[in-house]
Amino acid sequence: MSGPIYSDDGHWMWNGTEWIPATQAQNAVPAQQIDQTAVANAATQVGVPAQQVAAVAPHFDLNQDGQIDQNEMMQAAQSVSNPVNVPAPNQASMGIPTQGFAATPKKVFDWKDKRALLIGGIVTVAIAIGVLVFFLLSGNPIVGTWVNNYSTPDEATTTYNKDGTIQSTDTTGALTWEIDGDKFIQMATSTLPNGTEITVTQTAQYELTNDNNVLWLNLTSIVDQDGNNMMIGINPQTGEEIELEFPCVVLLRSSAQDLLNEQADWLNLGEPVPSYQSSKPSWC
After folding, report:
1. Angle at the Cα of 172 from the Cα atoms of 78 and 5, rounded to 5 degrees
2. Do residues 17 and 78 make contact, with C-beta atoms less than 8 angstroms apart?
3. pLDDT by residue (tens digit) across 39-65?
4. Helices marked H in 9-49
5. What pTM does this model have?
């Protein structure tokens, strides 16, 4: 292996668990700046050759800080260990002719132009409705700052404010959120390079643990402002429409330091810490 596994259009790369935005060549970390001891440790923990991890590691500077930290090194090792098991998100923009679908009411999402709205595992977004939302969300246990269970408190954090707005380190645009029963609705409005404004709404089933320190999310819908289903792609081998599958997302409350420390020592980065395994919802 001479580098990461990329999608056919080059916009996504495989991290062993999911497709993530591909690192641009100019953002790769020079091999001589990478700690080879960290490479060897990650390779040993995952059970793959160290030289393969060394080949992909320069491309896993996901926070673009000029170095490969422990989390990024583990993702690099996992990308070598775990084969691709889900289609890349760019199936709809891989040059497959679409004329044959003119008679169907479904519209295929253009991942190439709008991929910036779906960065990192899951995009955090939704709609605010002024003062009413402020009071409705003030006592909601989701209010606060959360960390992806494969990150550290200074990486990929998302803060859900009580006024319905969102601050996120891995998503851009005007971000808002709301709760509707057991549905967690998030929305992002952003402007594409061509000047077109797009609004993407995500709906997920959610559940909190009893101590409110772990938030489970199962994405059930992604649509744009025109109602286009963005969870539909094209199978490049058959040309048929397929429904893209997304794994459950687990968020850890940033103030739960013991939980974050336990997660940092837990090698299975696709799952929450062992002490919370029994709380995993049946639908996740």
Report:
1. 25
2. yes
3. 999 989 888 899 999 999 999 998 888
4. 36-46
5. 0.50
C-alpha to C-alpha distance for 46 and 100, rounded to whole angstroms: 44
Of residues 43, 51, 55, 39, the one with CA closest to residue 2: 55
**For residue 133, is pLDDT > 50?**
no
Query: Letter for the amino acid at 197?
Result: E
Nearest to 178 by CA among 154, 153, 161, 156: 161
- Report the percent of the chain where pLDDT is more than 90: 18
CA 48 to chain centre: 25
Query: What sign for the dihedral angle of Cα 182, 21, 168, 121?
Result: positive
Token output for 73: 């090194």
**133-163 burial, b if ≥16 CB within 10 A, otherwise e?**
beeebeeeebebebbbbbbbeebbbbbbbbe
Q: Which helix (H) or strand (E) holds 261?
A: helix 257-264
- 221 touches 234 (CB < 8 A): no
**Distance between CA 97 and CA 82 in Å, rounded?**
31
What's the CA gap between 198 and 203, in Å, rounded? 17
